[in-house]
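Hey, can you fold this one?
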Amino acid sequence: MPISANRERVALRGSVALPLALPALLFALITWQVAADGPLVRLDERLSRVLVNPDRFSELLADLGNIPVAVPVLALALGYVAVRGRRAGVDRWWLPVAAAALLMALVPALVVPLKALLARPGTPAEPPGTGYYPSGHTATAAVAYGSATLLLLPRLRTAPARRALIVLCAALVLGASYGLVRRGYHWPLDVVGSWCLCAVLLMSLWLFLRRATAPDRPRCPAVEPEPHGRS
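Sure. Predicted structure:
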């Protein structure tokens, strides 16, 4: 392998190590605090009492994290990317679509066992019960809208269009998160923990898509030794 390719690979690994490690460490810290009922939980409860103020608007925002709302958005993006890729004759056009769909299916497989294991009670605004950490609605919104954004970004030709899509994705996820906390459906740490988990998932998807859709590098032809003449 050429030296430049080795250096590029090392640089790429270094550039993604921190964005992957930081949210993973934060998620581990928050999860430990929730499991141990640590100081962050006390701060979280005080913050929730300040933020909770149920109203119709916060309820509508929280609905952005519902499966019937978020998943169809991802499904539309999957269908669009699949049709465009197949019509364009893209090699392995189905691979990004399958990866994003698999990531969406992975959300309940990760979140539901954590909810059952940690059994965190809900806020005073919710009926008595457990299983509130991490927030499944936040994870659904983040992965559905985030995956759709990652799939659509390479197909937008202008930088303003790409920025607008990123802003829209962030607005949907933050709106759902705010609604869940404001309405009292979740503690703030439930939402932040889901952010951290989904940051790792979406970063992993981005790395996979980057590798799967990257054009093959031309290989340098091997240099054959010149034949030596007889003396």
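The first helix runs from residue 3 to 36. Let me know if you want another pass with a different chain boundary.
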